[in-house]
Amino acid sequence: xxxxxxxxxxxxxxxxxxxxxxxxxxxxxxxxxxxxxxxxxxxxxxxxxxxxxxxxxxxxxxxxxxxxxxxxxxxxxxxxxxxxxxxxxxxxxxxxxxxxxxxxxxxxxxxxxxxxxxxxxxxxxxxxxxxxxxxxxxxxxxxxxxxxxxxxxxxx
Length: 156
Known about the structure:
Blueprint: H1 13-33, H2 39-49, E1 54-55, H3 56-63, H4 67-79, E2 83-87, E3 94-98, H5 100-121, H6 126-142
Antiparallel strand pairs: 1-3, 2-3
Helix pairs in contact: 1-5, 2-5, 3-4
């Protein structure tokens, strides 16, 4: 009974998607490092920017990390003066908001994100880019990805 050779790594689309994702993320991380912000911290800041106060639990769900991981990230952002914490509606909840400095920084970081996306994806015309985005979203949805829990590899 002969066994066939295992498929080569380079034959897997997932391998190439991971390479692309890692390359896009690494390049963005280098741009954020100049602002003393990590990609994980960017995700938290951008999430908080869209809310007018959100609990730690809600933020953890939206960012896609556990509460303790988010709590550590928030602590670093509080130390940097970008996020403030306060007691929520009940004694056990913690509410997170951006400080004035955080609100000012997010649009600058979003510009870096836009530039990073453009650097990688502007070789595609708008129709190709739109189709790629739709395809990726369709694959995620078809495989059980929950858009309300935007889980992210490597956010911690």
